[in-house]
Every structure is written in structure tokens, then in C-alpha cells.
Amino acid sequence: MSAQDYGYELIMDLSDCDLSVISSKESLQQYVDELCDLIEMVKFGETLIPYFGEKEEFTKGYSLVQLIETSSITGHFSDHWKTAYINIFSCKPYDEKKAEEFTKTFFKAGKVKSRFLTR
Q1: Domain count for the chain
Q2: Which domain holds residue 40?
Q3: Does 1 reside within a domain?
Q4: CA 107 vs CA 9, 27, 29, 70, 119: distances in Å
Q5: Is the sign of the CA dihedral 30, 94, 108, 60 positive or negative?
Q6: What is the pLDDT of residues 15-74, one digit of tens each?
Q7: Cα dihedral 51→107→115→58 (10° resolution)
Q8: Is 40 left (phi over 0), alpha (psi -120 to 50) or beta?
Q9: Which residue from 32, 70, 78, 110 could staple onto 90, CB 3.0 to 4.6 Å apart?
Q10: How do beta strands 111-118 and 61-68 pair?
Q11: DSSP conformation class of 46
């Protein structure tokens, strides 16, 4: 990290996910808990995991927000498309490859498109 860098962001678009995992509030909580342990992030407060967007078939699903001491982890999940959209942003460095592999395995995703940014 240089003096001008603020943080690191891993952006993942996962497709062909296991519907039983992305549509389970308990599974999403487990994902956040295990991910934070894996990449050594400290959670700040409770995980928000609301289910909404039910007016349209393609918009309904869970979203999650977990503040961490160094920023946040967010996710949006589509039951209809069996997709997940995850962002991990932190001013503390972490192993993005480990986070990506864990996320792909956890959601049993067929494909992951990811980008890693230094901000």
C-alpha cells in the first residue's frame, strides 16, 4: 500500500449459484462469519440481511451488509437468476485470491467474474 492508496476492493459477480445457499439467511450469515475469519477482518455490529424486491420476480432476494472495522462487505443475491454480487472493501490488505476461491466454493458458483481494485 502506498501513501496514496486508501484501500482494496474485490468485486465478484457469481453465476449459476446454488439456490438453496443464496436463498438462506442462515447460509448468508455463515458466509460472512467464515469469510471474516478467513481474511482476518473484524466485524463491526450485526450483519444486516433483508429479503426484498418482491414486486418483480427478477429483483427479489437477499442483500447483506456487514460493516467491518476497516470498511464493509456487501452482497446482493437474485433467486431468479441464481446470481450473487459481492464486494469486499477494506483499507487493511487481505488475500483477494483466497476470498474469491472461498466465495466461489461457498455459493457453489459455476462461474465468477472478478475485479480487484486498489483505491
Answers
A1: 1
A2: 20-64+72-113
A3: no
A4: 20, 9, 13, 24, 27
A5: positive
A6: 999 999 999 999 999 999 999 999 999 999 999 999 999 898 888 999 999 999 999 999
A7: -40
A8: left
A9: 70
A10: unpaired
A11: P
